[in-house]
Design brief:
The complex is a heterodimer of chains A (about 525) and B (about 350). Chain A is α+β, with helices and mostly antiparallel strands and about 525 residues long. Chain A has 17 helices and 22 strands. In chain A, helix 10 (about 310-320) runs antiparallel to helix 12 (about 360-370), helix 11 runs antiparallel to helix 13 (about 390-405) and helix 16 packs antiparallel against helix 17 (about 485-500). The radius of gyration of chain A is 24 Å and the shape is globular. Chain B has about 350 residues and is mainly α. Chain B has a domain at about 95-305: MetI-like (MetI-like fold, Orthogonal Bundle). Classes of the chains: A alpha+beta (about 525), B mainly alpha (about 350). At the A-B interface, helix 1, helix 4, strand 10, helix 8 and helix 14 of A face helix 2, helix 3, helix 5, helix 7 and helix 12 of B.
Chain lengths: ~525, ~350
């Protein structure tokens, strides 16, 4: 990647941009160029290949900006201002068109004939097959995500001719098409990758780790892990409208205070994923987008493995004791959506939905008195140090409130590295905070991960036979099936009554801009730089 | 040959003495990282991993093997100069250290030079004029330096000089994004840029250094100034100074030739200590100024139980301190000929 960009070259490019960048303080703000944007973020991009083991979340953006998928999602107005991807609209990216067989088992994609990789070679169905084979074969996260869409084995993918790619499914599923538009199934230049593969490394993991080989809207001009990533536009991109900005610099700045100062000064145009507190304070002076994260809820989880929580009255007492509004203000600074005080009767299948619970200590005390533990009990409330910014204030408020109904809570802080093991794998924390969010935006997908027995995010060890059946029945069912909505409503009813997870609020992803527009929220919670424009 | 160079022999002997220390560090860092809470396989398997993919990750990381076998493999790699791959940064630990250690050293050394330039004269002046305004100034600076945490000073300096006044460059790490980092020779941007004759980049790198180095200097000059003052006071009240004065030597000669030289020994000792803790303590400065240094690297690696990175960091620091101690010991003998290696 750096081989093609000689030092001289890069300096020239840099110098061209420099005259317009706010680096020169004498330049009035209005004279800034529209061809370079600078983004600051607190997270580290540790690989340019999403399929690699240990690739951080922040690295997913390379998969989005530098690679194409067959399909992508449309765009809509987001709640809370700005734009958002639209889960209900599927648009072509590398595929020109696609058809589904009547039994729903065969998907046929026609590739765009003019699509080329960065090296000028035409994108063929063989490249798509190789990339999909790779995603289902390398194991780890990409393989799990492919499986969610029913894509499990290389023999399901067929390159019929140069421009025709076919997927054979074992069963029809509504999740397949959306799963083709998530970051994972991106299309790699298979010829370039195979040239750099070795016997021990048939999928060219080492090569693609540092050298992307795609057809996407941006190429990586320079990458220094822990410091910066520089994207340069690929002018031959056909996956969508050509991006307005020639170069985007992603700069890593760990301190939120520094990020904020840089943005306010106008030296950077986008601050990605800023803390709720900064979002609330900056909203008055700058453009701040706080988009509620779809299909994601911050929850308080009473673990069924802990005896007192097997008592339904105890769980309900907690749900009535939790100070929802205080938590929403103290932990989220009002960014996101509250999840309490809704109607008990379920009339729609929107998820996340407001629960029927609200803060009522008298009711909570009554429920405690009616339970098998009228005198209360002691329980540790576990939180992750990595997520302390929302978990700590939440935990303190919960501790105080539960103290009033006789439950003595001691807060246990768990180091980040230990957290996932304790909460999700061993599922051993009696009372804890959890924040699962599903990429595929359907309630059944959320329930699959968070409420089905043994599944990773079911950290409460919850098992309900009816839920098991309902989730299995709805997971692949089309959403317009007449049976779908009643089944989903029943699922809501059960879990909101049994409360293995007590929803607290729906968090927001905060992005502030100063001199950039066009920001769009995506379920993967990474920055799509292709749609950004400088103002 | 060695017998004719007692100092060289002594130096080699000191280096040889440090070998057991390094071996001990290798063993302990290996065991300690394994004793850390947390399962890196779970962490690195990603957000939606199931049991099978966690197991695959574990095998890929070599963590399924028994501990003794892991240790043998680790030592074998170490012998070949391979510190392993850091999962959190996605690069080999050797590369990471080669990039990040110089970044931290450049910052720390600049800060230390700055601190010495201010603190030593301040300490000397305070000692020669006790009770005057210089002495009080010294006391205020020392108190402020010790009591202000570095992240606070850092944010304060950014707020004043960057945010309000706009005279400092953007706190964006070692170089603003419009510069290209100089070719890697030493890893010190100031030196590398000077070697290339690229003065534009040199100025860019120097500008970026000013705020973080000042932050760190403010923190480190306190013990140095304090120690200089105390050592100078002791030296000035000793018998040999009285004799020198009585013999009619000029006050300049008395002060610098006799008193200061004798006071230097504790100052150098303090300097060594300050350097070692500053290298670790600048994590917060690194975070605030987005400085890609070794401190923030190690902390992030620790948080996610990135074994290879933590071990590499501990080993690099151990080697650095061994070298530092050696340099300080050699400095002792240069400052005070009465101290010889043989005496120890």
């Amino acid at each position: 990647m750096t081989a093609q960009t000689s030092r001289r070259n890069f300096l020239k490019m840099g110098a061209a941009g420099a005259s317009m960048l706010p680096f020169l303080r004498a330049m009035p703000a209005g004279a800034q160029g529209s061809d370079t944007l600078v983004v600051v973020t607190g997270a580290t991009i540790n690989s340019l290949d999403l399929h690699r083991t240990g690739t951080s979340r922040a690295s997913y953006q390379v998969g989005i900006n530098c690679y194409d998928r067959l399909l992508t999602f449309g765009t809509k107005e987001a709640p809370g201002g700005g734009l958002s991807y639209d889960y209900t609209v599927i648009e072509p990216e590398l595929a020109e068109s696609w058809t589904e067989s009547d039994d729903g088992l065969t998907l046929t994609f026609k590739l765009k004939p003019d699509a080329t990789f960065w090296d000028g070679r035409k994108v063929t169905a063989q490249d798509v097959k190789w990339s999909f084979d790779r995603a289902v074969s390398v194991g780890g996260f990409p393989t799990v995500q492919m499986k969610a869409g029913g894509l499990e084995r290389p023999d399901q993918f067929i390159a019929e001719d140069e421009e025709t790619f076919v997927i054979k499914l074992d069963r029809p599923s509504k999740l397949t098409i959306p799963d083709l538009a998530v970051p994972v199934p991106y299309i790699i230049n298979a010829v370039e990758a195979q040239e750099n593969a070795t016997e021990d490394d048939p999928w060219a993991m080492e090569y693609l780790h540092t050298t992307p080989a795609g057809s996407g809207a941006y190429k990586v001009a320079r990458w220094t892990p822990g410091e910066q990533l520089v994207y340069d536009r690929n002018d031959a991109w056909v996956g969508g409208p050509l991006p307005a900005v020639k170069r985007v610099v992603i700069r890593e700045v760990p301190s939120p205070a520094t990020r904020r100062a840089l943005l306010e000064r106008g030296d950077v145009q986008v601050a990605f994923d800023i803390p709720d507190k900064d979002a609330a304070e900056l909203a008055e002076t700058l453009d701040v987008f706080s988009t509620p994260v779809e299909n994601c809820i911050h929850c308080l989880c009473p673990n069924f493995a802990f005896e007192p929580f097997q008592d339904a009255n105890v769980r309900k007492a907690i749900a009535y004791a939790v100070p929802y509004e205080d938590i929403f203000q103290a932990a989220a600074f009002g960014r996101g959506l509250p999840m309490y005080g809704g109607e008990e009767e379920i009339t729609d299948i929107a998820w996340p939905r407001k629960t029927q619970y609200y803060t009522d200590l008298d009711k909570a005390r009554e429920l405690m008195a009616a339970s098998a533990y009228p005198d209360g009990f002691e329980v540790p409330l576990s939180i992750s140090l990595d997520l302390a910014s929302w978990m700590e204030p939440t935990a303190l408020l919960v501790q105080e409130a539960l103290g009033k109904i006789g439950i003595t809570v001691e807060i246990e802080k768990i180091p980040g590295a230990n957290w996932r093991t304790a909460v999700l794998v061993e599922k051993r924390l009696p009372l804890h905070l959890e924040n699962f969010g599903g990429w595929l935006n359907t309630p059944d997908y959320y329930f699959f991960w968070a409420y089905q027995d043994g599944h990773l995010f079911n950290s409460s060890n919850y098992r309900n036979e009816e839920i098991e059946d309902l989730v299995n029945a709805t997971l692949h069912m089309p959403m317009d099936d007449p049976e779908y909505a009643p089944k989903i409503k029943r699922m809501f009813e059960i879990v909101l009554d049994e409360l293995p997870r007590i929803p607290l609020y729906q968090p927001a992803l905060n992005v502030a801009t100063n001199g950039a527009e066009g920001y769009e929220f995506w379920f993967h919670r990474q920055l799509d730089v292709r749609v950004l424009k400088a103002v | 040959m060695l017998s004719s160079h007692p100092r060289l022999r002594a130096t080699l002997w000191r280096v040889a003495q440090s070998i057991p220390v390094v071996i001990g560090v290798v063993v302990i860092s290996f065991l300690l990282t394994r004793a850390l809470p947390g399962d890196p396989a779970v962490y690195f398997a990603g957000v939606a991993a199931d049991a099978a993919s966690i197991e695959e990750t574990r095998v890929a990381m070599g963590l399924d093997k028994p501990l003794p076998q892991q240790f043998v493999l680790y030592v074998g790699d170490l012998m070949r100069g391979d510190l392993g791959m850091s999962l959190s940064s996605g690069r080999s630990v050797v590369d990471d250290l080669a990039n990040r250690l110089p970044a931290s050293l450049e910052l720390t050394l600049t800060a230390l030079v700055l601190a010495v330039v201010i603190a030593v004269p301040l300490g000397v002046l305070a000692a020669t004029r006790p009770g005057t305004w210089v002495d009080h100034l010294c006391r205020v600076v020392v108190t402020a330096g010790v009591s202000l945490p570095t992240f606070f000073t850092g944010i304060l300096l950014i707020y004043i000089f960057y945010y309000l006044m706009g005279i400092a460059p953007s706190p964006l790490g070692r170089l603003d994004f419009i510069y290209l980092s100089p070719d890697h020779v030493t890893g010190f941007y100031l030196i590398d840029a000077a070697l290339m004759g690229d003065w534009e980049t040199w100025r860019g790198a120097a500008k970026q250094l000013i705020l973080p180095a000042s932050t760190l200097a403010l923190f480190t000059l306190a013990p140095i100034a304090r120690m200089t003052r105390a050592a100078m006071l002791t030296a000035l009240s000793s018998d040999f100074i009285r004799t020198a004065r009585a013999a009619g030597l000029s006050s300049r000669t008395v002060l610098y030739r006799y008193a200061f030289r004798n006071a230097l020994l504790p100052v150098v000792t303090t300097l060594g200590m300050v350097f070692s803790f500053a290298l670790g303590a600048n994590v917060l400065v690194e975070k605030v100024f987005a400085w890609p240094g070794i401190g923030s690297y190690a902390v992030e690696a620790l948080v996610v139980s990135d074994y290879a990175a933590v071990q590499g960091f501990v080993l690099a620091m151990a080697l650095l301190f061994v070298a530092l101690n050696l340099v300080i010991d050699l400095l002792y003998t240069a400052i005070d000929p009465r101290i010889g290696f043989d005496a120890k």
